[in-house]
Structure prediction request, 432 residues.
Amino acid sequence: MTRSKNREKRRIGGLATGLAAVVLMNLCAVPAEAQHVIQKIEALVNDEVISAFDVVQRMGLVVAATGGISSEQELARLQKQVLRTLVDERLQLQEAAEYEVEVPEEELDDAYSRIAQSFNQTAESFEEFLAQFGATKGTLLLQLNAEFSWQMLVRGRLAQQIGVTDEEVDAEIARMESNTGKYEYKVSEIYLIVGSPSDDARIKAIIEELAKQIKEGGANFRLVSRQFSEASSAARGGDLGWLSADQMQPAVAEVVTNLDVQEVSGPVRTPGGYRLLALTDRRRILSLDPLDTLVDIRQIMFAFNEETTQEKADLWVARAVKESPMAKSCDDIEALANALEITTFGKLAEISLRSLTPELRQLLNAHEDGTPTEPVASQDGIRIFFVCGRREPEIGLPSFDEIYAQLQEQRLSMVARRYLRDLRRDSIVDYR
Prediction:
């Protein structure tokens, strides 16, 4: 066996041992016999070290996002992809440092809090949650710093070089007007690059595994995209915004136009790599859709605190079910709140049905306006909702500036991919 094969065998076998303990068994502590593995150098990126410990930490985030890893074979494939992602992030951070790009700490903290909320956690409890998977807050902040630094660098260096003419904006407006009434699609992606033909089978196996985790294991598409996707959209959870069929690559359009809303595709081979596609929503261009209806939502809330017990919550729900019939219209909300001894009530916002979760949308549509829903439990309390009005919004073309910004963002994404490709080509990366 060659030296390189011996080295590869030690790397995969040893790291699988360490990660099996940390990831597969969801333990926070690394076994003593795996300590030498954790200290091992996995790669040098222009002489900067990426250690096995770095990989283990990031794998903890991966498991938190996907819900688990089912086999050592899957573990090995995902570990390789994680290492590749860490190399790219190190290149991005090095380039950002070269131009003295610094991300304000408050931006990183805000992003961290938003991610915590997506896991139904507070910023404080999220640290304990990550620790269950062998990851830390610092690991996630480092990833966020790489994402934000890269975005700031690309915009600062390249935005002025990207010209969008008035004629191009006018052409986009004409395109939208000609497509009036046709569907457009809100699409998200996970994109893995195939660097060479020899990588094709490995990348396809990885993206098939991710598709399985999302479809069968309930993994969060946005979080998986943030961890794995090699497109600039990863920083937005893979969100590509609203696209019509003629704005997509033919292979992508063929898949997306046949997906149901909230459905995730299988692997899609496109030039440069493989994609998973998720159809978040669908609407008609410059035309009213029932889901565009704006609803005036109000609520009564029984808020949880440190003294709330399950018994107390159950008693409140039983009381709410008994007292709710007294509310015949939105004028009765305050009286119902007083009867339930609740002071937290009032108007939430006027929001489109499209913006609501499918479950809440279905709940509100199942009740006559002005009448209370049944109690709905969440992490922070129990709510009773009312719809106190509906109206149709005005539908019009986006402004000139909005279309200009959209076209510029599309071009920035393409330029950012080329920028990172050039960094890879010009850097010295030594995998151990």
In short: The first strand starts at residue 41 and ends at 45. The chain is about 50% helix and 15% strand. Confidence is low (pLDDT under 50) at residues 1-36. Residues 72-98 form the longest helix (27 residues).
